[in-house]
Amino acid sequence: MMDISIFLAKFWGWYFMLFFVLFMVYPKRIKQMFLFAREDQFMIILSILGIIIGLLHILAHNIWVTDWRIIITLFGWFSLMKGISQFAFPGFATKWVNNIDYKWFQFILFLLFLVGLILLNQAYQWVLY
Predict the structure, then answer these.
(1) What is the arithmetic mean of pLDDT over 30-47?
(2) Is 80 exceeded by the pLDDT of residue 51?
(3) Are 70 and 64 in contact (CB under 8 A)?
(4) Cα–Cα distance measured from residue 124 to residue 12, given in angstroms and rounded to the nearest whole number
(5) Cβ(51)–Cβ(57) under 8 Å?
């Protein structure tokens, strides 16, 4: 049976890599996503998904250690907190999204790409160090 940390490292790593490539190939999707985020219904759906994903993630992987696995644990907690805050304060979440600059989103996307590479390296041991 695969270790849950390895499974989640593969999941999040491939997820970040895939979305980085998709957003770079189809940049108009970023603008569409920001337009959707202005809608309260979209924020409610995102918040419910964030809460579900966060809770499942924390129940499966709540490992507080000082190695790469802390990244995975923090993703679960971040997802849960983001979902709760979006649900409780949808106006604040919408205002926050409206204030994000397109360039900052690309920078954050690139950082997540790097985190994805780190997680995939941990999962597949491509580069040993």
Answers:
(1) 83
(2) yes
(3) yes
(4) 13
(5) no
pLDDT at 95 over 80: no
Structure tokens at 92: 């604040």
Cα–Cα dist 25/10, whole Å:
22
pLDDT at 37 over 70: yes
Contacts by 92-98, CB closer than 8 A, 24 or more apart: 93/43, 93/47, 94/37, 94/38, 94/40, 94/43, 97/34, 97/37, 97/38, 98/34, 98/37, 98/38
Distance from the Cα of residue 17 to its chain's centroid:
11
Sorted by where each begins, the domain ranges of the chain are 4-124
Q: 2 falls in which pLDDT band (50, 70, 90)?
A: low
Average pLDDT over residues 19-36: 87
**Can you say whether the dihedral through the CA atoms of 47, 96, 108, 118 is positive or negative?**
negative
